[in-house]
Protein backbone atom coordinates (compact mmCIF):
# COMPACT_ATOMS: atom_id res chain seq x y z
CA UNK A 1 0.00 0.00 0.00
CA UNK A 2 1.21 3.49 -0.87
CA UNK A 3 0.63 5.97 1.94
CA UNK A 4 0.34 9.59 0.84
CA UNK A 5 1.19 12.37 3.25
CA UNK A 6 -1.54 15.04 3.14
CA UNK A 7 0.55 17.90 4.53
CA UNK A 8 3.35 18.12 1.97
CA UNK A 9 1.72 20.94 0.00
CA UNK A 10 1.18 18.76 -3.08
CA UNK A 11 -2.38 17.95 -4.12
CA UNK A 12 -3.37 14.35 -3.44
CA UNK A 13 -4.35 13.71 -7.07
CA UNK A 14 -0.86 14.79 -8.16
CA UNK A 15 0.69 12.38 -5.67
CA UNK A 16 -1.42 9.53 -7.02
CA UNK A 17 -0.49 10.47 -10.59
CA UNK A 18 3.22 10.65 -9.68
CA UNK A 19 3.03 7.26 -7.96
CA UNK A 20 1.46 5.63 -11.00
CA UNK A 21 3.92 7.37 -13.33
CA UNK A 22 6.86 5.99 -11.33
CA UNK A 23 5.45 2.48 -11.67
CA UNK A 24 5.11 2.98 -15.43
CA UNK A 25 8.68 4.27 -15.62
CA UNK A 26 10.20 1.36 -13.66
CA UNK A 27 8.20 -1.25 -15.57
CA UNK A 28 5.86 -2.25 -12.74
CA UNK A 29 3.08 -1.34 -15.16
CA UNK A 30 4.12 -2.42 -18.66
CA UNK A 31 3.05 -0.82 -21.93
CA UNK A 32 -0.42 -2.05 -22.86
CA UNK A 33 -1.12 -3.39 -19.36
CA UNK A 34 -4.44 -2.67 -17.72
CA UNK A 35 -4.16 -0.63 -14.53
CA UNK A 36 -5.95 -1.68 -11.35
CA UNK A 37 -9.50 -0.36 -11.06
CA UNK A 38 -10.31 2.98 -9.48
CA UNK A 39 -11.50 1.35 -6.25
CA UNK A 40 -8.25 -0.62 -5.91
CA UNK A 41 -6.08 2.44 -6.63
CA UNK A 42 -8.10 4.51 -4.17
CA UNK A 43 -7.72 1.86 -1.48
CA UNK A 44 -3.99 1.36 -2.04
CA UNK A 45 -3.32 5.11 -1.89
CA UNK A 46 -5.87 5.88 0.85
CA UNK A 47 -7.73 8.45 -1.22
CA UNK A 48 -11.23 8.68 -2.68
CA UNK A 49 -12.24 7.72 -6.22
CA UNK A 50 -12.65 11.36 -7.28
CA UNK A 51 -8.96 11.88 -6.51
CA UNK A 52 -8.07 8.78 -8.56
CA UNK A 53 -10.16 9.94 -11.51
CA UNK A 54 -8.41 13.31 -11.54
CA UNK A 55 -5.00 11.62 -11.38
CA UNK A 56 -5.84 9.29 -14.26
CA UNK A 57 -7.23 12.19 -16.30
CA UNK A 58 -3.95 14.06 -15.83
CA UNK A 59 -1.95 11.03 -16.95
CA UNK A 60 -4.21 10.59 -19.97
CA UNK A 61 -3.69 14.25 -20.93
CA UNK A 62 0.05 13.57 -20.97
CA UNK A 63 -0.41 10.48 -23.11
CA UNK A 64 0.78 8.03 -20.46
CA UNK A 65 -2.48 6.10 -20.12
CA UNK A 66 -5.72 5.76 -22.06
CA UNK A 67 -9.23 4.93 -20.89
CA UNK A 68 -11.29 2.46 -22.89
CA UNK A 69 -15.05 2.65 -22.40
CA UNK A 70 -16.39 -0.34 -20.53
CA UNK A 71 -12.95 -1.91 -20.22
CA UNK A 72 -10.62 0.10 -18.00
CA UNK A 73 -7.47 2.20 -18.14
CA UNK A 74 -4.35 0.98 -19.93
CA UNK A 75 -0.73 2.07 -20.01
CA UNK A 76 -0.17 3.80 -23.31
CA UNK A 77 2.52 2.29 -25.51
CA UNK A 78 5.30 4.45 -26.88
CA UNK A 79 4.67 6.31 -30.12
CA UNK A 80 4.86 4.29 -33.32
CA UNK A 81 7.51 5.51 -35.74
CA UNK A 82 5.47 5.76 -38.94
CA UNK A 83 7.59 6.17 -42.09
CA UNK A 84 6.15 8.21 -44.94
CA UNK A 85 7.48 6.74 -48.15
CA UNK A 86 6.35 5.81 -51.63
CA UNK A 87 5.27 2.38 -50.40
CA UNK A 88 3.31 2.80 -47.18
CA UNK A 89 1.54 -0.21 -45.67
CA UNK A 90 -0.01 0.08 -42.21
CA UNK A 91 0.26 -3.64 -41.43
CA UNK A 92 3.93 -3.78 -42.36
CA UNK A 93 4.83 -0.68 -40.37
CA UNK A 94 3.01 -1.80 -37.23
CA UNK A 95 4.20 -5.40 -37.55
CA UNK A 96 7.81 -4.27 -37.90
CA UNK A 97 7.50 -2.61 -34.50
CA UNK A 98 6.51 -5.88 -32.87
CA UNK A 99 2.81 -5.05 -32.56
CA UNK A 100 -0.22 -6.78 -34.02
CA UNK A 101 -1.93 -4.73 -36.75
CA UNK A 102 -5.69 -4.96 -37.08
CA UNK A 103 -8.25 -3.34 -39.32
CA UNK A 104 -11.92 -2.92 -38.50
CA UNK A 105 -14.50 -1.89 -41.08
CA UNK A 106 -16.72 0.91 -39.78
CA UNK A 107 -18.82 1.50 -42.89
CA UNK A 108 -18.86 0.90 -46.63
CA UNK A 109 -21.09 2.92 -48.91
CA UNK A 110 -21.44 4.35 -52.40
CA UNK A 111 -21.39 8.07 -53.12
CA UNK A 112 -20.82 10.48 -55.98
CA UNK A 113 -17.37 11.90 -56.63
CA UNK A 114 -16.90 15.52 -55.66
CA UNK A 115 -15.00 17.72 -58.08
CA UNK A 116 -11.81 17.29 -56.01
CA UNK A 117 -12.08 13.50 -55.70
CA UNK A 118 -12.88 13.23 -59.40
CA UNK A 119 -9.75 15.23 -60.20
CA UNK A 120 -7.56 13.01 -58.00
CA UNK A 121 -8.98 9.75 -59.32
CA UNK A 122 -9.16 10.92 -62.96
CA UNK A 123 -12.93 10.47 -63.09
CA UNK A 124 -15.84 12.66 -64.05
CA UNK A 125 -17.51 14.68 -61.28
CA UNK A 126 -20.47 12.68 -60.00
CA UNK A 127 -18.92 9.33 -60.91
CA UNK A 128 -19.85 6.49 -58.55
CA UNK A 129 -17.32 5.86 -55.76
CA UNK A 130 -16.99 3.20 -53.10
CA UNK A 131 -16.26 4.81 -49.74
CA UNK A 132 -14.66 2.69 -47.01
CA UNK A 133 -14.30 3.94 -43.43
CA UNK A 134 -12.05 1.80 -41.23
CA UNK A 135 -10.37 1.85 -37.84
CA UNK A 136 -6.73 0.74 -37.65
CA UNK A 137 -5.25 -0.61 -34.43
CA UNK A 138 -1.86 -1.69 -33.12
CA UNK A 139 -2.49 -4.36 -30.48
CA UNK A 140 -5.37 -2.80 -28.50
CA UNK A 141 -4.54 0.82 -29.28
CA UNK A 142 -6.56 2.67 -31.92
CA UNK A 143 -4.08 4.46 -34.18
CA UNK A 144 -6.12 6.02 -36.95
CA UNK A 145 -9.50 6.31 -38.58
CA UNK A 146 -9.19 6.21 -42.36
CA UNK A 147 -11.49 6.98 -45.26
CA UNK A 148 -10.69 5.54 -48.68
CA UNK A 149 -12.41 6.25 -51.99
CA UNK A 150 -12.22 3.98 -55.08
CA UNK A 151 -13.97 3.88 -58.42
CA UNK A 152 -17.17 1.83 -58.11
CA UNK A 153 -16.90 0.80 -61.77
CA UNK A 154 -13.36 -0.50 -61.39
CA UNK A 155 -13.73 -1.97 -57.87
CA UNK A 156 -17.46 -2.79 -57.52
CA UNK A 157 -17.15 -5.14 -54.52
CA UNK A 158 -14.42 -3.28 -52.65
CA UNK A 159 -16.53 -2.67 -49.55
CA UNK A 160 -17.51 -6.30 -49.11
CA UNK A 161 -13.96 -7.44 -49.83
CA UNK A 162 -12.57 -5.12 -47.17
CA UNK A 163 -15.11 -6.51 -44.73
CA UNK A 164 -13.72 -9.96 -45.50
CA UNK A 165 -10.00 -9.18 -45.62
CA UNK A 166 -9.58 -6.07 -43.38
CA UNK A 167 -6.75 -5.11 -45.74
CA UNK A 168 -6.73 -2.73 -48.69
CA UNK A 169 -3.66 -4.50 -50.09
CA UNK A 170 -5.67 -7.75 -50.26
CA UNK A 171 -8.64 -5.94 -51.79
CA UNK A 172 -6.47 -4.61 -54.61
CA UNK A 173 -4.80 -8.01 -55.04
CA UNK A 174 -8.26 -9.47 -55.65
CA UNK A 175 -8.44 -7.22 -58.71
CA UNK A 176 -4.99 -8.27 -59.91
CA UNK A 177 -3.11 -5.24 -58.53
CA UNK A 178 -0.11 -6.69 -56.72
CA UNK A 179 1.74 -3.49 -55.98
CA UNK A 180 0.99 0.19 -55.74
CA UNK A 181 2.69 3.31 -54.46
CA UNK A 182 1.96 6.65 -52.86
CA UNK A 183 2.03 9.42 -55.45
CA UNK A 184 1.40 12.31 -53.05
CA UNK A 185 0.98 12.95 -49.32
CA UNK A 186 -0.31 16.02 -47.53
CA UNK A 187 -0.25 16.38 -43.73
CA UNK A 188 -2.24 18.82 -41.63
CA UNK A 189 -3.37 18.95 -37.99
CA UNK A 190 -6.78 19.43 -36.39
CA UNK A 191 -8.76 18.75 -33.25
CA UNK A 192 -10.57 15.41 -33.35
CA UNK A 193 -14.30 15.69 -33.94
CA UNK A 194 -16.65 13.82 -31.61
CA UNK A 195 -16.88 10.75 -33.84
CA UNK A 196 -13.15 10.31 -34.35
CA UNK A 197 -12.41 11.08 -30.69
CA UNK A 198 -14.76 8.28 -29.61
CA UNK A 199 -13.31 5.77 -32.08
CA UNK A 200 -9.73 6.65 -31.18
CA UNK A 201 -10.38 6.77 -27.42
CA UNK A 202 -9.20 10.37 -27.28
CA UNK A 203 -10.24 13.04 -24.83
CA UNK A 204 -12.19 16.07 -25.98
CA UNK A 205 -9.88 18.61 -27.58
CA UNK A 206 -7.08 16.16 -28.39
CA UNK A 207 -5.21 16.64 -31.69
CA UNK A 208 -5.16 14.41 -34.74
CA UNK A 209 -2.75 14.41 -37.65
CA UNK A 210 -4.57 14.28 -40.98
CA UNK A 211 -2.84 12.48 -43.83
CA UNK A 212 -4.34 12.90 -47.29
CA UNK A 213 -2.83 10.74 -50.00
CA UNK A 214 -3.23 9.39 -53.49
CA UNK A 215 -2.11 5.86 -54.38
CA UNK A 216 -1.40 4.83 -57.98
CA UNK A 217 -0.63 1.57 -59.76
CA UNK A 218 2.63 0.65 -61.49
CA UNK A 219 1.58 2.64 -64.57
CA UNK A 220 0.78 5.74 -62.56
CA UNK A 221 -3.02 5.36 -62.82
CA UNK A 222 -4.94 6.56 -59.73
CA UNK A 223 -6.32 3.85 -57.48
CA UNK A 224 -7.19 5.25 -54.07
CA UNK A 225 -7.82 8.65 -52.54
CA UNK A 226 -7.20 8.50 -48.81
CA UNK A 227 -7.79 10.63 -45.74
CA UNK A 228 -6.54 9.18 -42.44
CA UNK A 229 -6.86 10.81 -39.03
CA UNK A 230 -4.07 9.65 -36.70
CA UNK A 231 -4.04 10.05 -32.92
CA UNK A 232 -1.18 12.52 -32.64
CA UNK A 233 -0.02 11.18 -29.29
CA UNK A 234 0.44 7.64 -30.65
CA UNK A 235 2.48 8.18 -33.80
CA UNK A 236 5.49 10.12 -35.01
CA UNK A 237 5.86 10.51 -38.75
CA UNK A 238 9.27 9.85 -40.26
CA UNK A 239 9.83 11.31 -43.71
CA UNK A 240 12.14 9.06 -45.71
CA UNK A 241 13.91 10.22 -48.88
CA UNK A 242 14.84 7.77 -51.56
UniProtKB/TrEMBL annotation:
<dbReference type="InterPro" id="IPR050679">
    <property type="entry name" value="Bact_HTH_transcr_reg"/>
</dbReference>
<dbReference type="GO" id="GO:0003677">
    <property type="term" value="F:DNA binding"/>
</dbReference>
<dbReference type="GO" id="GO:0003700">
    <property type="term" value="F:DNA-binding transcription factor activity"/>
</dbReference>
<dbReference type="InterPro" id="IPR036390">
    <property type="entry name" value="WH_DNA-bd_sf"/>
</dbReference>
<dbReference type="Pfam" id="PF07702">
    <property type="entry name" value="UTRA"/>
</dbReference>
<keyword id="KW-0804">Transcription</keyword>
<feature type="domain" description="HTH gntR-type">
    <location>
        <begin position="10"/>
        <end position="78"/>
    </location>
</feature>
<dbReference type="InterPro" id="IPR000524">
    <property type="entry name" value="Tscrpt_reg_HTH_GntR"/>
</dbReference>
<dbReference type="InterPro" id="IPR011663">
    <property type="entry name" value="UTRA"/>
</dbReference>
<keyword id="KW-0238">DNA-binding</keyword>
<dbReference type="InterPro" id="IPR012702">
    <property type="entry name" value="CP_lyase_PhnF"/>
</dbReference>
<keyword id="KW-0805">Transcription regulation</keyword>
<protein>
    <submittedName>
        <fullName>Transcriptional regulator, GntR family</fullName>
    </submittedName>
</protein>
<dbReference type="InterPro" id="IPR028978">
    <property type="entry name" value="Chorismate_lyase_/UTRA_dom_sf"/>
</dbReference>
<dbReference type="Pfam" id="PF00392">
    <property type="entry name" value="GntR"/>
</dbReference>
<dbReference type="GO" id="GO:0045892">
    <property type="term" value="P:negative regulation of DNA-templated transcription"/>
</dbReference>
<dbReference type="InterPro" id="IPR036388">
    <property type="entry name" value="WH-like_DNA-bd_sf"/>
</dbReference>
Amino acid sequence: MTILEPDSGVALWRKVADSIERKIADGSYAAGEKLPGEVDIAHSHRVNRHTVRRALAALAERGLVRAERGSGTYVEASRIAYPLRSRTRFSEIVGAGGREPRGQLLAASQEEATRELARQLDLKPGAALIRIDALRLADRAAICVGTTWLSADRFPEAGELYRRFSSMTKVLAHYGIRDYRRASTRITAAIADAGDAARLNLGIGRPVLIVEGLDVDSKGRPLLAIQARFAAERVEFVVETE
